[in-house]
Every structure is written in structure tokens, then in C-alpha cells.
Design brief:
heterodimer, A: 264 residues, alpha/beta, six-stranded mixed sheet, 37% helix, 23% strand, globular, B: 288 residues, mainly alpha, MetI-like fold, flat, binds adenosine-5'-diphosphate, binds magnesium ion
Chain lengths: 264, 288
Amino acid sequence: MIETEDENTEKKTQAEQSDGPMIRVLGLHKKFEDFEALRGIDLDVLPQQVVVVVGPSGSGKSTMLRCINGLEQATRGQIFIEGIDITHHATDINEVRQKVGMVFQSFNLFPHLTALKNVTLAPIKVRGMDQDEASEKALKLLEKVGLSDKADAYPAHLSGGQQQRVAIARSLAMDPDVMLFDEVTSALDPELVKEVLDTMQDLAREGMTMVVVTHEMGFAKEVGSRLIFMDEGIVVEDGDPEQVFTNPQHPRTQEFFSKILSHI
Amino acid sequence: MGIAGLTFLPVIGAILAIVFAARAKKQILTSDLEGMGLAKAGRTLGIIGIVIPALALILFLLRDNVRAFIDEFFDLEIMKESWSFLLRGLVVTLELALVSEACILVLGLIVALIRISRIKVFRFIAAVYIDVIRGMPLLLQIIIIYFGLSYLGLNLSRFTAGVLALTICYAAYEAEIFRAGIESIHKGQMEAARSLGMTYLQSMRFVVLPQAVRRVIPPLSNEFIALLKDTALVSVIGLGEMMLRARELMGTKASVTPLVVAAFFYLMITIPLMRLVQVMEKRLSKGD
Ligand SMILES: Nc1ncnc2c1ncn2[C@@H]1O[C@H](COP(=O)(O)OP(=O)(O)O)[C@@H](O)[C@H]1O
Ligand SMILES: [Mg+2]
């Protein structure tokens, strides 16, 4: 499913082939006023990889994800999505965003719309899909996340876990090639975490390329194909989850894991 | 003096009642709630016994003035003669308010969007417009627009000039309300919409504005009530809305009664609107 024909082949740089990385981040810097949140990130995410990102609060994990889908503008460096440089001024960021789904810690469902309308809004307005087709597709997606019976419910009447699953369905409705998850279970009551993680695991099994910021180490080990540890705006460690987890190389990684492990 | 003298009798009784009540209060125990209550009741009755005769006395002494007041303000004959003429003025007032409000909503929203746009020059221009307009009396703006435009060779009808002036003025206020409403929507909403590939304007239109509009309906309704009253200022350029007609009648009938009728008509519209706004505000605060 990843190797679909791309209409934008001509936009791709010659170095990029269709089997190249899904996301390529080169020397990414991000400065807020005088604070440097990202200080040179290099990262390749290959198709179907599930990259788990961990790191202390304030290390720049959210900022990196937000740069990858253009919610923040890179101060320096380049970001390629399927070979298209999104930091280039001529790139239509709206088009690229359709390929990059993002799920937020705070769900951000549209409270004035039902679950179904949350899912159909973008396909209808952006893709010009007609109402019936969009609804049919949305129902399938809601079924996939286990919420077909909640199609007509407003977000205020859904639990946090249900809202987050609707948010995932909403992103999937644009047929993204990559999904970014930013601490999507952090705001949830403990008993609701699993239903969301299960949904993400299903997605991973289907071959979705994912970048997942999370502190759920179980998920990292079981689903992650790679684990990245970030601190103070750089990638400190990058490797197989099990390995990084049991045998961290960098002292800061060791410290971080010993801290969070003592809490579990 | 005969009748007036009679009022002294109950007043003397009332003063005695207050004195006795005060004494009783001193002598009974503070723990005796019933006794305290009675003492207080005695004092209250005593005070009433003074106030009512005093008021009666004043009304009596001023009886000619009171009669003159009622004749001047509530002359039934003049009411009968003026209500239909004023009612036709009220229609003009309502037309003026409604047409203006429609234009104000459009212009106000556009100015709000410019005010929060990412282009600095646009933001600046919108901010200057808002400040300049809000810093001037509406009356002055109406006169400037009507006479200014006619000097420029643009002969607008009085109605059009009135709509134009009210729109330019009120849009500045309503732009600020729209802006506050838009800014009250969590920025995660815009980001979620953008991350789905919607453009800024699509996100604004389908995600942010529908939520913001719900929140600003009560303050916008209050603005509409203020606008309805401010249409009276357009009488200064000779538009025959209700205020101008009331003043005309005041001259021809040599009576204030037409103004009272006009006041009644304004209240008939504004009081239900004010109640409606309260109901909406309650609903919204529950809904959140
Ligand atoms: N819009 C912003 N303006 C200023 N500073 C910001 C902004 N967003 C993030 N930061 C700062 O950048 C750093 C990294 O933040 P973030 O990416 O949210 O970290 P994480 O997600 O790893 O907790 C933090 O110190 C944060 O205060
Ligand atoms: Mg974060």
C-alpha cells in the first residue's frame, strides 16, 4: 500500500526513489525567539516503520512532529515527505499535510460536529468527496476503531479514549501515508489507554508508517520497530527498542529510563 | 393648612412607636429572638408611619405641578393623535437597524479576520480603523459621512447615509467581539484542521468560526440593542425615523407626550430583546 503511484513524482528530487525514506529530516533546527528547541535533528523514517520517540519533557519531541507536518516552520534544515521538501517555499503544504496524519494529546475533535462529521469534514472540503461517499468511508473507519455505534454522538458525549479513536479515524480519512502521534494517551484515564494503543497497534500491523511520541514502554517494545531518545533538541540515541531499553548507551538515556522505570 | 395639619397626628404616633421600639430593644435580651423581631417590626412600622404622610404632604403641596406633569407627559389626546405617525417611524427605525446590522456583521467579520491575519500591514490598518472609529462620537461620524460625501459629489439618500455611518461605526465594535470570539477558540482546533490538509480559510470557515459565532451571539445581540437605540442619532441628518418624528410632533403639539410614546415603542422592542439575550447567555454557559 505504501508503493502507490505518486502524482508528484516530478517534484521529487533525483536522489529520492519511491523506495526511499518516507520522512527524511536533515539538520533540522527550530528556534523560538531566543530558545533553540531543536538543535540539529537528522532522521530517516522508512516505509512501514514504527518509530517510537521518547525523551524528557521539553526535549523537543512535539516540536519535531509539528515541524514534520508544517505546523511549525523549520528555522534551518530540510524535511522531505516522500521526497518532497516541505521547507521549500514553493511546496504546497496543504497537499503534503494530506499525506501526513497527526493525532494530538488533547484530541482536538471539532466539538460542534458529530463523530461522523468530524471524520467526513476534510474529505468533503479538501478532496471534494461527495457526502454519501464520505459518510460511507467514515463509517468504515469508525467501525475500524470500534466506534460505529457512536457515529452520531458529539465529542462532549464521548469518553477520552473514544474521542482519541475518533481523532485517529479522522486522520485516516485522508488516506495518509504517515501518521504522527504526539503523546496521544497522556491525557487519558489509565483504563482508557489500552483501547487507543490497541487501535494504533492495528494500524501498525496493516503497515502504516508511524512516528509515535509516547511514554508507554510496553507499546514501544511490542510495536515499535525503532526507538529514538531525544534530549535538549537532539537525537541522543537511536536503535532497536529492546536494545535501547535494556542496554542504553548514553548516560542521559540511562538516567531517563531509570527514572521512568522507577515509576512503573 | 387644615388637611396638612391632620397628617401630624399619625406622625406623632409613629415617632412614639420608634422611640418605644428602641427602648424595648435595649431592655429585652439579645437571645430573645421573638422579642427582637417584634421590636424591629415596631420600628419599621413607625418609619413607614412617617414616610407615607410625608410623601402625601409633598404631593399635596405640589399638586398643581404633579397635575401639570401628568398633563404634559401623558396627554391621552395627543397619544391618540401621534401613535400611528410614530409607529411608521418605528418601521423606518427597524429597517435602518436591520439593514445596518446585516452590513455590520459582514464588515465586522472581515475586519476581525484582517485584524488577526498574519500580514503585519493589514493588521495595522485594521487596528487603526478600529481605534479611530471607537474614539469618536457616533453623532459626529454620521454628520461627517453625510455632509462629507455630499461635498464629494456623492449624493446618498439619508437612509443609505445612515446605514453607511452606522455600519462603519458599529463594525469596529463588532470586529473586536468577533476577534475575541475567534481567539477564544483553542488553537488546537485550527491545528487539527490544518493537519488534515484544510487551508487556513477552510479551517476558519468550517472549524473555528462555527464555534466562535456561537460564543459571540449574546454580545452581538447586545450590540444590536445598542444599535437600535443609536438609530435615533440618524435623525440629525433628517431621516424620518421614530426619534425625528417624535421631535417634530413635540414641536407641533407643544407637548412632551410624543416622546413618551416613542420611549414606550423603543422599550417594546428592546426589553424583550434584552430578556432573550439573558436566556441565550444562560444556555451558552450551561452548554459549555
Ligand atoms: N510556540 C513556542 N514558543 C516558545 N517556546 C516553545 C514553543 N513551543 C515549544 N517551545 C519550547 O520548546 C521546547 C520543546 O518543547 P516541546 O517540543 O513541546 O517538548 P516536548 O514535546 O518534548 O515536551 C520547550 O522548552 C518549550 O518550552
Ligand atoms: Mg510534547
